[in-house]
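Morning run. Coffee first, then this:
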Amino acid sequence: MASKNAELKDFVFKPGQLINIMLNPDDRSFNAECLYVGMLPNQTLIMTPQTATFPRLEKDHKLIVRITTSDGNILFVAQVSNMTGGAQPIIFLQKPSSIKHTINDSIGSMGLALPILASNEDTGARGITGTLDNLNINKARLTLDKPLGDPDQDVIVKAKFVIGRVNKSVSLKARILNEEFENDRYIYHIALDEKDESTFLVLFGFIFSETSR
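And here it is:
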């Protein structure tokens, strides 16, 4: 397990995703739950309480927030910028100054070295060679011979997955999260954004096959 600093924009959250809240940091316990609604361009997090017993929060109230991601957890302190009234209030949290991302590589991911070809839809870069080094259902890690692009750009990763006796070549749609440079190679963490059902089933079948060995 490892940890690193990150920003909210580095993560892909789904509407209705559970958010654990520590209402009073002195209690040292996550005693409330909210559901993810969305995020504004300035990284203001929007959520709604899961229960009707959630207390009223004033502006600038500090919370400790924990969100489970596909590869671990993120933890940060945030201030309330606004909370609407009504039967289903909406809470707006200011962009946190820092986020701790704890990575657990054992959560549905695996170490790989699959040959790939990567392309960038935004820049037009095509056929960059490299390997797919780590993969789970939501994210992947690439090691490439040449630069692929910048964070938030859309990319395509072509790879051949072996599931039992079946070989399937697929093109995965993804978005760049961040870039690193290590040992003269370009390292990219990407968020998978594959909506094609047949491609998603191949990906899921491959992950299930590898983790079941």
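Residues 105-109 have pLDDT under 50 and may be disordered. Good start to the day.
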